[in-house]
């Protein structure tokens, strides 16, 4: 599902940038891997997953029980709600171009803070909705990220993408009271 979110955001941002750019080529890419070191594509916007965080605040009261629409109760592993931290890096030969594209990225996500199936039919059926939140890091945290990437700073914006939900695909049916009653009578009688 994470790859579907990345592909969707890449495609939507790419389409937006093509509409607002004189060149009609795709300038949004996934990160490149050059040998053992990370590198960013030149004259492009690169998406990079920085962190995954579990969202615990919306957990159900009984996380291992679920009632289906037909009224049957099943045992399931609780769903996992994830927030993805995605870094959008604008790397262009001309620093002014980098800033221009960074501004376009921020403008795009400001105009499209929530992605739903109603507004964006290309959103995967596996994803209910995405909410984009710009994250402002202190200088020390930014420094740690770029040091961890072993790369020099490039104009970039970090977004928290809420929520990608992973659900248990194989729930186990729970025994009903009448099933238990029959087993007990059969055992004792």
List its salient traits.
three-stranded antiparallel β-sheet, 189 residues, 4 helices, alpha+beta, 11 strands, single chain
What does this structure look like?
With 189 residues, the protein is an alpha+beta fold. The protein has one domain (2-188). Helix content is 31%, strand content 32%. The chain has four helices and eleven strands, in the order αβββββββαββαββα. It has helices at residues 2-19, 95-111, 139-149, 177-188, and strands at residues 28-30, 32-34, 37-39, 44-54, 65-67, 73-75, 80-91, 114-116, 129-135, 156-166, 172-173. The strands form three sheets. The chain has a six-stranded mixed sheet with strand order 1-4-7-10-9-8. The protein has a three-stranded antiparallel sheet with strand order 5-6-11, with no helix packed on it. It has a two-stranded antiparallel ribbon with strand order 2-3. A hairpin with a 5-residue loop joins strand 5 and strand 6. The longest helix is centred in the N-terminal third of the chain and has 18 residues, at 2-19. The radius of gyration is 23 Å and the shape is globular. The model has no long low-confidence stretch (mean pLDDT 80). Residues 5-173 form the Pvc16 N-terminal domain. Pfam families: Pvc16_N (PF14065).
């Amino acid at each position: 599902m994470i790859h579907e979110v990345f592909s969707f955001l890449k495609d939507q941002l790419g389409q937006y940038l093509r509409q607002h750019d004189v060149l009609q080529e795709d300038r949004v890419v996934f990160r490149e891997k050059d040998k053992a070191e990370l590198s960013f594509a030149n004259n492009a916007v690169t998406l990079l997953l920085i962190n995954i965080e579990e969202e615990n605040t919306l957990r159900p009261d009984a996380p291992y029980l679920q009632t289906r629409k037909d009224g049957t109760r099943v045992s399931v592993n609780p769903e996992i709600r994830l927030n993805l931290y995605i870094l959008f890096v604008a790397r262009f030969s001309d620093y002014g171009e980098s800033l221009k594209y960074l501004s376009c990225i921020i403008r795009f996500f400001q105009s499209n803070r929530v992605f739903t199936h109603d507004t964006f039919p290309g959103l995967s059926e596996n994803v209910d909705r995405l909410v984009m939140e710009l994250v402002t890091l202190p200088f020390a945290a930014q420094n740690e990220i770029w040091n961890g990437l072993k790369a020099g700073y490039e104009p970039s914006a970090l977004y928290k993408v809420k929520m990608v939900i992973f659900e248990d695909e194989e729930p186990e049916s729970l025994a009903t009271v009448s099933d238990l009653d029959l087993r007990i009578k059969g055992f004792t009688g």
